Amino acid sequence: MGPLRNTYHLFLLLITFGIVAVHGQEEVEWSPDFRFTWNDFKGKVPAGSGAAATTASGISYDFSTYYEHGEMKVDFNVYAYFYPTKSWYKPDISNDVTLLHEQLHFDITELYARKLREKLDNATFTDNIKEEVRKMYKATIRQLNDFQNKYDSETNYSRNLPVQERWVKEIGEALKK
C-alpha cells in the first residue's frame, strides 16, 4: 500500500497591487522564452484609468503531504502566471518601452515565485502545514507588492529611461540565477 497522502490545493492570484480570485481565467505560465506582445493584452481598459497599461500576473501554489517512515514529506509546486484577459493597454499612449516595462512586472512575479519555492524548500513544517504555507505565501505576496511598487516608482512607470534600463538589466541577471 502506498504512502498516505493529504492534498491541499490552493489557487491564489495576485493582480498587481491587490489580490483577487479569478475562476476559469485564461493564464500563461512564466517561461524565459515567453515575451509579451500587445496582442497578449486582451482586457478592457477601465474607464478613467490614467495608466498606459496594466499587467495582471500572479503566483499560485499547490502542495501535498505524505508520511514516509514516520516522517512527513511535502511535495509542492509554485507557478507565476500572466492573465491576458485581465491585462490591458491603451494603444495611443503605449510603446515598446511600455511593453518592456510590463514584461518586467511579469518577470518580477517569477522572481517572487522562486523566492516562495526556496522558502518552501528550506522550511520545516509541523502538522499545521496548511497555515504555515499560507503565511509564507502571504508574506511573499506582500514583498512582491512592495517590490512592484518600488519598480513603478523608481522608473516613473517606464518614463525614466535610464532607471528603466537599470531595472531591465538587474531583473534579467536575477532570472539567470
UniProtKB/TrEMBL annotation:
It holds the Pfam family DUF922. This is DUF922 domain-containing protein. It comes from Maribacter litoralis.
